[in-house]
Amino acid sequence: MAEIVFLLFGVLVIGAAIFVIFAAVRAGARPGGQLAWRTPGLLPPVPAHVQQEVRELWAAGKKMAAIKLVRERTGLGLKEAKLLTETLGAGHAVPSDPAGTAVPDLATRVRDLKAAGRTEQAVFLVRGETGMGQSEAEAFINAL
């Protein structure tokens, strides 16, 4: 009887692992790639040496290689990486709002949810964007 329980538990664990991998791949995760930047509308930090390398690739006419480099180093999607690469290639600084639509900061969005009586969604938002635990997120929301 114990062997059957152990076997069923093992099958359940393997099934859960396969589900997580499938969900991650479907969401756009790439093996060995960096995590995508989590806050929409904000760019991840782009080191100066990467910016210089992108400018050099752009000047050499290797636009696709420059976009690929930006995607690999920042985890950005294709649209954001293309915009960032074009901006750097034109000799401009890294834009602060790649899509042209500013997203309110986390505290503002949480206050709006809290005012609308949607505290559970505010907790979910805080946990998703910061990695806080349940009690930490609730304390954060109560402090606002």
Number-wise, the strands total: 0
Q: Which quaternary structure do these chains form?
A: single chain
Pick out the low-confidence regions: none
How many helices? The count is 7
Q: Helical percent range?
A: 55-70%
Class by alpha and beta content: mainly alpha
Q: How far apart, in Å, are the first and last alpha carbons? A: 53 Å
Overall geometry comes to flat
SSE arrangement, N to C: HHHHHHH
Average of the residue pLDDT scores: 81
Determine the strand fraction and express it as a percent band. Answer: under 5%
Gyration radius, in Å = 21 Å
Note the main sheet: none
Could you characterize the architecture of this molecule?
The chain has 144 residues and is an all-alpha fold. The protein is built from 7 helices and no strands. The protein has helices at residues 2-26, 48-59, 63-74, 78-89, 106-115, 119-130, 134-143. The longest helix is centred in the first third of the chain and has 25 residues, at 2-26. 13% of the residues are buried. The mean pLDDT is 81.
Nutshell version of this structure?
By secondary structure, the chain is mostly helical. It has helices at residues 2-26, 48-59, 63-74, 78-89, 106-115, 119-130, 134-143. The protein is built from seven helices and no strands.
